[in-house]
Amino acid sequence: MSFFFFTFFCIAILIFEIQQTSTFFQQRCYFWYCTRPYFHLSTSIRPYSLSYTMASHKIAKPAGAAPADEIELSVAQALLDLENNVAELKKELRPLQISSAKEVEIGGGKKAIVVFVPVPQLKAFHKVQQRLTRELEKKFSDRHVLFVAQRRIMPKPTRHSRQKQSRPRSRTLTAVHEKILDDLVYPTEIVGKRTRVKVDGSKTIKVFLDTKDATSLEYKLDTFSSVYRKLTDYCESVLFQLQGAFLYIIKNQKNNGNCFVHRQWCLN
């Protein structure tokens, strides 16, 4: 009988201690809830943070990457607003995400926003890119908006490298830089390109664009040049020009069983 009362007494003490501990933690949590500015109902930070939290779902970053900055969240929020408010873009924008966004100075106090998108979604972005660019440039009225695929450059394999498979052609530095050039001027077609190397080793690239989109491209030529140099650091100057006619000639000459390809650029 005494053992029963002793057991009941111990259980009662244990329940009392649990209640006291629970009350203590509830008080501490309530104090923390009231003092934290993010959770305080009277602060203006809460709706701003919640909207940016929803916009963060439009950003696809690899594991271990740095958190999204203000520019990336602004672009993601703009995409989310267009998805919710523009009926023509809702279906196309819903599955699309961006990898990152970067602000680039183009001189004269002007800036441009480069939006990096996943390579598998590039074609889907191309379907709505013209309309999407116009809408985003309305929201960011003082900046041009450009879309570039997030590509990876693999280093050249060496004798001591541990790579078991050969490097794909699409992962080389030259191929990635060419793709960046195509992405910057899309949907305009590049009809010619010249690379001039001076005696001192400096390089100048001239890129000739089709004139059918002259009205929508002329004011962006300097932006293309500045952004390409910032993204690649490949040459000292890049010149974009509008060119109407272009002739591309490939001549094959065989010499001792080897095939050489000569390219002749004929521009008027």
How would the blueprint of this fold be written?
Layout (H helix, E strand, L loop, with lengths): L1 H34 L9 H11 L14 H16 L1 H7 L6 E8 L2 E8 L4 H18 L3 E7 L23 H13 L4 E8 L5 E8 L3 H4 L3 H12 L4 E7 L2 E10 L2 E10 L1
Parallel strand pairs: 2-3, 5-6
Antiparallel strand pairs: 1-2, 4-5, 7-8
Family: Belongs to the eukaryotic ribosomal protein eS7 family.
GO molecular function, one term: structural constituent of ribosome
Pfam family, one: Ribosomal_S7e
Task: Note down, in words, how this protein is organized.
By secondary structure, the protein is an alpha/beta fold. It has 2 domains: 51-150, K homology (KH) domain (GMP Synthetase, Chain A, domain 3, 2-Layer Sandwich), CATH 3.30.300; 171-268, 2-Layer Sandwich (Alpha-Beta Plaits). Helices cover 43% and strands 25% of the residues. It has 8 helices and 8 strands. It has helices spanning 2-35, 45-55, 70-85, 87-93, 122-139, 173-185, 214-217, 221-232; strands spanning 100-107, 110-117, 143-149, 190-197, 203-210, 237-243, 246-255, 258-267. The strands form 3 sheets. A 3-stranded mixed beta sheet has the order 1-2-3, with helices on both faces. Strand 2 (110-117), helix 5 and strand 3 (143-149) form a beta-alpha-beta unit. Helix 6 packs antiparallel against helix 8. The chain starts with a helix and ends with a strand. Residues 23-51 and 244-268 have low confidence and may be disordered. Keywords: Ribonucleoprotein, Ribosomal protein, Signal. GO terms for molecular function: structural constituent of ribosome. This is 40S ribosomal protein S7.
